[in-house]
Amino acid sequence: MSARSLNKAQLIGNLTRDPELRYTPQGTAVCTFGLATNRTWVTENSEKKEDTEFHRIVAWNKLAELCSQLIFKGRKVFVEGRLQTREWTGKDGGSRQVTEIVISDMIILDNKRAPEDGAGTTMQGGSFSPKAISAEKTSSASGIKAEDKTAASKAEKAEDKTVKKEEKESEEVKPEDIPF
Predict the structure, then answer these.
(1) What pLDDT, in 10s, does the model give residues 38-95?
(2) Can you give the pLDDT at residue 113?
(3) How would you write the chain as a 3-class SS string?
(4) CB within 8 A of 74, min separation 6: which ones?
(5) Which CATH number is 9-40+50-112 given?
(6) Which residues, including other chains, have CB under 8 Å from residue 92's CB and lie 6 or more apart?
(7) All structural domains of the chain with their residue ranges
(8) Biggest CA-to-CA distance, the chain
(9) Helix 130-140 to helix 146-171 angle, to the nearest 10 degrees?
(10) How distant, in Å, are the alpha carbons of 27, 102, 110, 179 from that of 172?
């Protein structure tokens, strides 16, 4: 009878830095980012304590490219993968070691938007956010009669809801979407 083993890590936390996408000499995408998880508890003296752990996350191939496009510092995500420890010799000759979580799945858990650029438009995954769309329509709607503005405003709100729903659906990364 052979022994079974399991190496699985599941985390929910916030990114501590923007993802860094690189490519191996063979052209394989690899993305790294930091994730912070918090734990709170109450001591016997009814004192509330909190502890934060910092994790190094690594994604490969298509998932690496998706992470670099969809997530950014502060974003809350769920990641699932395996623990991996690497060892190497540093430039000073000293032994180094790092434990990482190599993820196979990532789900975005919040609705935060990417930081705004200088033009006042918010980009994410190659499309404008509802804020940018409504800002463009508002500026072009000046000079319209009051009743037309009300109708235009209702149309903008309906379109914004549709865009938000489409963006929310497109943000979730499903395992079947990731080729491995």
Answers:
(1) 999 999 999 999 999 999 999 999 999 999 999 999 999 999 999 999 999 989 999 9
(2) 75
(3) CCCCCCCCEEEEEEECCCCEEEECCCCCEEEEEEEEEEEEEECCCCCEEEEEEEEEEEEEHHHHHHHHHHCCCCCEEEEEEEEEEEEEECCCCCEEEEEEEEEEEEEECCCCCCCCCCCCCCEECCEECHHHHHHHHHHHCCCCCHHHHHHHHHHHHHHHHHHHHHHHHHHCCCHHHCCC
(4) 14, 15, 112
(5) 2.40.50.140
(6) none
(7) 9-40+50-112, 123-165
(8) 81
(9) 160
(10) 26, 19, 10, 15
Q: Which two tokens stand for residue 97?
A: 């070691």
Phi, psi of 88 (to 5 degrees): -155, 170
Tokens representing 1 are 């009878």
